[in-house]
Amino acid sequence: MKILVLHGSPKGDISVTMQYIKYLEVCFPEHEWNTVLVGSMIRSLEKEHDRFDAVMEDVVKADMIVWSFPVYHLLVPYQVKRFIELIGERGAAGAFNGKYAMALTTSIHFMDHTARNYIHAVCEDLGMQFGGTFSAEMNDLLKKRGQMAWCGFMKHLIDDVMKKRVLPKAFLPISKPSWNYIPVSPVSKTDPSGLKVSLIADLSSGGNVRGMADRLKACLGIEPIDISRIDIQNGCSGCCHCGFDNCCIYDGTDGFKEAFVKNVMEADVVIFLGTIHDRYLSSAFKKFFDRSFVFNHAPLYWGKQVAWLVSGPLTQIPNLRQIMEIYPGFSRGNLVGIVSDEGGSSQELDALIDSLAARCISLARDKIILPQDFLGFGGMKVFRDSIWGELRMVFPQDYRLYRRLKLFDFPQKKIFNRIVVPLASLMLKIPFIRKAFLKNSKRGMIMSHAAVVKKARSVQEQTAV
Ligand SMILES: Cc1cc2nc3c(=O)[nH]c(=O)nc-3n(C[C@H](O)[C@H](O)[C@H](O)COP(=O)(O)O)c2cc1C
């Protein structure tokens, strides 16, 4: 069987993910393996059509395609996103049609499921039969169990492919009704004075985004920043030099860092505007987000209001919505809202944009930050544990920042958990204490909450008098 690996790490051959592939080559020598380093080759694939065509010829010859990549900012790296865009732009999707595919990701398990969903859906859009994703933690290959799971997964998939088994689909195809947004209603203006508001848009990417950006500009009196015009020469190279001092190897060679600091880090309100390309935004946006890794795992949207304005079929891509939610979600920022142009009515979109702008400003003035939900809360725990643990060696900046922000909130550090909880657990083993406890457990659970309500009521009564 001919297996083609499309390897997406910008580190090329010297990548953690690549070692998983090499391990498979040893386990399954009876199959023909061919690897193309699309991640490190992306610039030449963009420029030299012959090289791109040669890769497509390899795709045509293969029985199975393996997408192998590290998770970068909740998705595939920019380089893979761009490669997928090239397939569409150059009309090469036919090469993939009807082939079997699978994906291998390595990561620290922060939002690796959104990367998995993305590549799975893209494969189905390309007409492929998708056999699953092996979502490895970076170091799973170092453990016997990880090695067995990896080989076992592949053995069964190879069997599926050889026997031409039919695999279930998970995603509906996307329909993209297009229409022209032309603002019709008078603009309802909002005064942002005293706040730093950034409108970060990819104005090169078509759709209704330009019209939406113009409307927002008219509401807030703020000029959008077009990321396609910022000089960002390369995607993140994955070298992690930035872990020691937040300095990137590209600092001084292009305009990314200055633009990011000025427009994101220094802002109170950040509104992103973009067009959906395949099942994410444009690769220009992906490059922008990947390069923000220069600030490592810092909660970049801490205390900020964040909103998204999107042109495209967002309700058909819940995975993308989840990605948009997690940026403020894990950072303890506030997601004001996500507005898309799917309604198909200019009047409705006018009202949605005006209202979004007004809500961004009023929430920022009152510094409202809603509680984190499972994704944000759970995601932060993944970072907390990793940065306190092994990552501390490579990312000392993160470690210092997390200490300063008191993010190392391990439960065992709380005196209550260390002293009261074990004692109480012991006492609850005594039958008559447990009986009394259970009898009063409902009231006991709300005792402190009820006290807060009582105090609030008395304060309110006093102020009323
Ligand atoms: C720019 C960048 C973004 C990353 N984003 C994520 C992420 O969103 N989630 C995650 O779990 N790991 C993330 N990682 C960690 C990598 O996925 C992980 O280190 C991977 O194993 C590297 O594989 P490679 O050596 O094959 O490139 C990121 C690393 C970099 C450099």
* Small-molecule components bound: flavin mononucleotide
Task: Return the CATH architecture of the largest domain.
Answer: 3-Layer(aba) Sandwich
What coarse outline follows from CA principal-axis ratios? Answer: globular
Q: Structural class given helices, strands, pairing?
A: alpha/beta
Could you name the CATH class of the largest domain?
Alpha Beta
Strand order of the largest sheet: 2-1-3-4-5
Unreliable spans = none
Beginning-to-end CA distance, first to last residue: 84 Å
Description of the molecule:
The protein has 465 residues and is an alpha/beta fold. The protein has three domains: 2-162, Flavodoxin domain (Rossmann fold, 3-Layer(aba) Sandwich), CATH 3.40.50; 197-374, Flavodoxin domain (Rossmann fold, 3-Layer(aba) Sandwich); 413-464. The chain has helices at 16-27, 38-47, 49-61, 78-89, 112-125, 144-162, 209-220, 242-245, 256-265, 283-291, 318-331, 346-365, 374-388, 391-394, 396-404, 415-427, 431-439, 441-464; strands at 2-7, 32-36, 64-70, 100-107, 129-137, 197-201, 225-226, 269-275, 305-311, 334-340. Helix 10 (283-291) links the parallel strand 8 (269-275) and strand 9. Helix 2 (38-47) crosses helix 3. The model has no long low-confidence stretch (mean pLDDT 97). It binds flavin mononucleotide (FMN). The site of flavin mononucleotide has 23 residues, from helix 1 and strand 4.
